[in-house]
Amino acid sequence: MVFVFFFETKIMPEGPSIRILRELLDPFTGDTVMKASAIAKGIDAKCLEGQKITAFKTWGKNLLICFPEFTIRIHLMMFGMYRVNEHRDKPAKLGLYFDDGEINFYACVVELLERPLDELYDWQADVMNPHWSTAKAIKKLRAKPEMLACDALMDQHIFAGVGNIIKNEALFRARVHPESKVGDMPPAKLKQLIAEAVHYSFDFLKWKKAGILKRHWEAYDKKTCPRDHVALHEEVLGKSKRRTFYCDVCQKLYA
User: Fold this and answer.
1) What pTM was estimated for this model as a whole?
2) Half-sphere CA count of 177, side-chain side, radius 13 A
3) Is 51 helix (H, G, I), strand (E, B) or coil?
4) Is-contact 250 175, C-beta < 8 A?
5) Is residue 187, in this structure, part of any structural domain at all?
6) What is the CATH number of the domain that holds 43?
7) Which of 89, 120, 151 is the last residue in one of the domains?
8) Beta carbons of 61 and 76 less than 8 angstroms apart
């Protein structure tokens, strides 16, 4: 393998970014770890040596490196980064070295999972997974009628993979005010919001690969509403306390 790739950001990676990482690492599937290093708590690097990678999977914002008897979970958090076929001067949280390449992860969560992934993850909750279930999402939302729309979209048990960019853009596309209560939204509008979260995730993936994601932001980190040409509000809203951009002209408050 001759490709070299690295990733650094101050924006928390969202599901589509982790899908891109998985695709980048797929060529290592079937390779045996010849050497490993780890400074992550609870990870014994020696136990990884001689192990064959059976698959790379994702669930939401989590990268899953699958071995025959266990899985390594990687979450890049806010400041995580990785290097493929190169490394930084500082020790990696986890480094995997092969005959023809290496993978290094920094400033991230590394966890060893021994239980089967089907017991740990609801694949129907991942907005980019083929098994995604809109019906299941609606059922979970109806069970929490007082939840704000901005919090609902950030709930990884309902919308695994949705982060702050997707949240803002889905709310804007659906014309829903971020402080709308889930229980007060008409069923058709709730379904539209869910659909926009899924659709924007795949648009995010396409634009991220093309290096033009920011060109397509309509609400996130913007000053003016492109529909009404009025100033967008920027506030820290919801239990997640994340930056939220919205237009109080075209985004209706359901409450």
Assistant:
1) 0.93
2) 13
3) coil
4) yes
5) yes
6) 3.20.190.10
7) 120
8) yes
